[in-house]
């Protein structure tokens, strides 16, 4: 089971790398443990496209 988990993690890190452009090494470090970001940090990292400040009513 451990090998499966490592393979899935490697695949997920490659997907994140492809979509964010972040170096694979950085992604491996950042996803090793819990990693929290603000909305602006997530945008800068590339995991979100934009931050919506408010929804018009």
List keywords for this structure.
ATP-dependent peptidase activity; mainly alpha; ATPase binding
Characterization of this structure:
The protein has 3 helices and no strands. The protein is mainly alpha-helical and 57 residues long. The protein has helices at 2-20, 24-30, 39-45. It comes from marine sediment metagenome. It holds the Pfam family CLP_protease.
Total domain units: 1
Number of strands: 0
Radius of gyration: 14 Å
Terminal-residue CA separation: 49 Å
The profile of the biggest β sheet is: none
- Poorly predicted segments: none
What percent of residues adopt helix (DSSP H or I)?
A: 55-70%
Structural class: mainly alpha
Strand content: under 5%
| Principal-axis shape | elongated
Question: How many helices in DSSP terms?
Answer: 3
What do the pLDDT scores average to? 94
How are helices and strands ordered from N to C? HHH
Annotate the secondary structure layout:
Layout: H1 2-20, H2 24-30, H3 39-45
GO biological process, one term: protein quality control for misfolded or incompletely synthesized proteins
Organism: marine sediment metagenome
InterPro entries: ClpP/crotonase-like_dom_sf, ClpP/TepA
């Amino acid at each position: 089971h451990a090998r499966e988990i490592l393979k899935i993690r490697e695949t997920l890190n490659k997907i994140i790398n492809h979509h964010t452009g972040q170096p694979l090494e950085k992604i491996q470090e950042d996803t090793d443990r819990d990693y929290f970001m603000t909305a602006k940090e997530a945008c800068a990292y590339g995991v979100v496209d934009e931050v919506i400040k408010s929804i018009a009513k």
